[in-house]
Design goal:
The chain is of the alpha+beta class and about 130 residues long. The chain has one domain (about 10-130): Haem-degrading domain (Beta-Lactamase), CATH 3.30.450. The chain contains four helices and four strands.
Length: about 130
């Protein structure tokens, strides 16, 4: 058997705090979701005035990044070539989700929803940088 690295709730909360700071700096109302390497939700925060659908989208972006071990933007590009990939369950092939790697191993993902997709990804990257 091997030892597996994993995100703790404290790690997830640090990601969310840093992502919230980036969103606040830019006056963006977003939802931030952090999932483990299996796509299971660890933490979620919806900022004031973020849309009602943004939590669901943020979770799906985080799952896409964690399960695919790549940014959700990469899945978005792949769907252009192979549209059937967009039908995979529990994933949003839309920019704004990033995998979280630790010592070369994917330990989870962060997804953001609420502003332009590139801005969502900017917030997600700020969250990961806190680790």
């Amino acid at each position: 058997m091997r030892t597996k690295n994993c995100l703790s709730l404290d790690d997830a909360n640090r990601v969310i705090a840093a992502a919230k700071a980036e969103a606040a700096k830019n006056k963006w109302a977003v939802t931030v979701a952090v999932v483990d390497d299996s796509g299971i939700l660890l933490a979620l925060e919806r900022l004031d005035t973020a849309t009602a659908q943004s939590p669901d989208i943020a979770i799906l972006k985080a799952r896409a990044a964690a399960l695919g071990r790549m940014p959700s933007k990469a899945l978005e590009e792949m769907v252009k070539e192979r549209p059937a990939l967009g039908t995979f369950p529990n994933r949003a092939p839309v920019q704004g989700g990033l995998p979280i790697f630790y010592q070369g191993e994917c330990v989870g993902g962060v997804g953001v929803s609420g502003v332009k997709s590139s801005e969502d990804e900017q917030v997600a990257a700020a969250g990961i940088a806190a680790l």
